[in-house]
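Example with several molecule types.
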Amino acid sequence: METIKLTIDNKEVEVPNGTTIQKAAKKLGIDIPILCYMELKDMNIENKPGGCRICVVEVQKRRNLAPSCSTNCEEGMVVLTHTPRVLNARRTVMEFILSDHPKDCLVCAKSGNCELQSMAHRLGIRDIPGQEYAAMSTYRKDFSPSIIRDLDKCIMCRRCETMCNTVQTVGALSAVNRGFMAAVAPAFEQNLEFSTCTYCGQCVAVCPTGALTEVNHVPNVLRALADPTKTVIVQTAPAVRAALGEMFGMKPGTLVTGKMVTALRSLGFDYIFDTDFAADLTIMEEGTELLDRLNRHLKGDKTARMPILTSCCPGWVNFFEEYFPDLKEVPSTAKSPQQMFGAIAKTYFADKIKVDRKDLVVVSIMPCLAKKYECQREEFSTEGNRDVDFSISTRELGEFIKQANIDLNNLQEGEFDDPLGESTGAGVIFGTTGGVIEAAVRTAYELQTGKKLERLDFTELRGFEGVRSATIDFNGLPINIGIAHGLGNARKLLDDVRSGKSQFHAIEVMACPGGCIGGGGQPLHHGDSEIIKARAAAIYAEDKSKPIRKSHENPFIIKLYKEFLGKPNSEKAHHLLHTKYFDKKKKIIVKQ
Amino acid sequence: MSKYSIHLLVCGGTSCHSAESDVVVCNLRDEIEAKGLSDKVQVITTGCFGFCGKGPIVKVMPDNIIYVQVKPEDAQTIVEEHVVKGRKVERLLYRDPKSNEIIGDSKHMSVFKKQLRIVLRNCGVINPENIDEYIARDGYQALGKALTEMKPEQVIKVVKDSGQRGRGGAGFPTGLKWEIASKNKADQKYVVCNADEGDPGAFMDRSVLEGDPHSVLEAMAICGYSIGASEGLIYVRAEYPMAIHRLKIAINQAHEYGLLGKDILGTGFNFDITLRYGAGAFVCGEETALIHSMEGLRGEPTIKPPFPAQSGYLGKPTNVNNVETFAAIPVIILKGAEWFSKIGTEKSKGTKVFALAGKINNVGLIEVPMGTTLREIIFQIGGGIRNGKKFKAVQTGGPSGGCLTEKHLDMPIDFDNLIAAGSMMGSGGMIVMDEDNCMVSVAKFFLDFTVDESCGKCAPCRIGNKRLHELLARICDGKGIPEDLDRLRNMSQVIKDTSLCGLGQSSPNPVLSTLDNFMNEYEAHVKDKKCPAGECKNLMEYVINAENCVGCTACARVCPVNAISGQRKEVHHIDPAICIKCGACKEKCKFDAIFIR
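Resulting structure tokens for the full complex:
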């Protein structure tokens, strides 16, 4: 590869052609502050609008300052990164940005974790000249079931737009209005609820300020816990345990499963269960459905549509209901683990502990913001009582734990409760891209072939490529599997399904880049993809450490079918554990 | 044209049109028909003469007599007197504001005398809706020459050697731009004409499109041939309906004549042009923003490189030139690089069209060789300052240009001198200010525009310009403090230094140039709380001079807010807390008893 030599702060550096000044400087250990720029390395995600102008540097022979995030190095370039001219420019621009930003850090969800706040501190801003007469650009607040938009705090970094449009191809957010009143909003400045938004939460995951935050359900959960008439149970999704520790200063990828259980118990939950249990249940239902369709398909039954698509990701479900409603019969009808758990908890478990479902509050801890919307879907409630009452994100749980003065670092390891707390390694890997299909393969293989699966680690299904495919040998029967994470990648596979070109038997889709470990409700990665990778490694480590790694071998799952459901895809299972999809394509009505 | 002995050319540009020049045309035709002169006299609607302040214009050829401010009812007189009897209609002739002399022959009018019209060669001369008239004036000959006698690289060489620089504002060498686009290999390339004229007060592009649309089409085809593009797009603002209308007619006619479309002039060269409409955002004049707008995206700039010549419209190599740049190309091809490069200054060749506006006598559009001084433009061609007032400053280059003063009047105008003086060529707007203009208010006025037109993408332009504007408003309101002037300068310099595109990089120019040239006025505002020009209302006070006041009560009766009190035949008093400084009292007072303090 062609390389370029240049000087940065009087030090020579050689970099590949196409390297930006900012990255070349980093190579020399020179840290140029960046604000709007964001890159998730190896995940093909980059936000490079060159808009904030904080990262400007002096380039010899150039008239004005250059944004180092988006200016490529040139041969012989002479760059100075921290001259008085540069420092003054950065400070003045930062003063501009802050002059149009609310100063309510005390009650801001992002306080302490806000990139603007850190930058203000780093640049040594102590006051904002002229603030007393500076007009503020204001915009109405927008509350949706999952996400709150408070554009007064928006700094126009455009990261949300990149995620929503380029990465997810959802197209719910783009810049509107001009100049000082410019903002990022859905088409026709509708509220998010009436846009094409899938609530995947990737906009929230990258927002540097408090402009985009999750709807906070901690107060609701707290009220339920404080109410002596309620039995409050909690389920925790697999990706949560691989990330929660980050909020307590632990290294990314530290598993905190046992400590999390103890913390939840201290918070006052009556039963601590595991969504992984429901993940195993999902495999039973979805796997059986897959085999049923596959075998009918192999017999030439034209009504058995291939491929089957996974349906555990609510952002993904929202996406195909919006963009591919014509394919709504293609995905598996199996509910997501969150909702399967809720359905079982409010029937089987409620009966067991003899509590009326109205007095049983089911809380889920999810790495996800779309789960908030999912649990509010009408089809997931009985007589107005939701199967899952509240869904809180990993971030909310972390803050909740801190509020209760619990030091996660020094907690004893706890154990999940029975009967909905027992899970297998297959349930754990639901938290990362490729995991659901790997779990499905482990079970489907044995059910289909009647043989014992010797090799449990399907490394060919793992990794971070946006679209992956593999063929698994089912004892002579080749099963083609497709995997996509990130909705933009999913769209590619869906387009093939729609046009009849798809050769896959089964496709796994997760809406968030990396899967649930990179979910919109996770601790903020601040543009560091290594964090997401470390979480994936933790998930696979937990899988490996489990004594049982196949869903159909989970003794409590076997018991549940025996005592309650009968067999997979039974009538009762269908009633409780399956759902249907709707055409939610937005129709835009322009009022005259 | 020989069939007719007399031609009546009536300006059909937007400005004259809005003053009913179309009715003048109808009335002239009716009169001529009534007199049975239809086979001898022809009435032609032309493009802009550039003498907009005195429109509607009617020119009688071959006498070369110009009638100004012609009303529909004057048609009868013109036909009866001039056409039939051969007598000039004196009352409709131009009166020189300085000498008060009546001048009929356009050759002797100072506004036209100093001009050299290359870009505007056909404006006000031909009927823009008739391709034959364009062809009669050597139209499409340059395209023929290029396609049949020249190789693409030869065409580029001529343009390069001519020294032509882009007239959109930045002054990038046109030939070089073409060369870069020609060297980038691609299956498809595009030629884009930037007709998103956004500077308030500048209307040269509109006038060319309205008065001579074929010159732009021809040039685009030549450009397409030289860079290897078969598609052209004109990005024209939807607020220019007449330009759009005439472009459509011109494109259709060029198609009929085989001058656009497939196999042009039998050479195998294909070139077609389509129109794209802009929604009137100033920033869309910036080429990357313009391209995004054409692609259906939000009209906001992106960082260069990549330049459009590398990756432009739909990711393909794209050459973007301004209307005025294109309009000169056919002449350059026909008359040669040497001819063109002899006009102008060392680094700025050819002519430049300027739009004169503000406190100047001859408001309108002029074209002069590069290197003409501001003094020649303002005092000779422009006829000097209106109402005999004193010249104070001229703002060149549109809203983000700088304000130049007396000391710059003898500077030859070209790209580089203007930048050195803290202003810029821009699209060629010139707004002249007299002693009554407050320069702080002027800076605020221009900032008002850029604040409105910023796209909001980069922080310094989005927020910084707003803060500049706020601070200027405070100074004009008398709330400024001396330290504000340092802040103004610092903010301005940082905005210039850090903004993403040309809009923000130049928007503080009015502030910086007025700080440089009119510091005393700023100081008067912040230190003495006075506006020397008497324009900032909050810094003035209407006061009654007790010696002159006779107590007639006229002022009190006319005051709309009852700020004036006093008994009949006693000295009156204005309450400054109530007074809204409308000036009605001062105007009413017959005794010169009210003055501004």
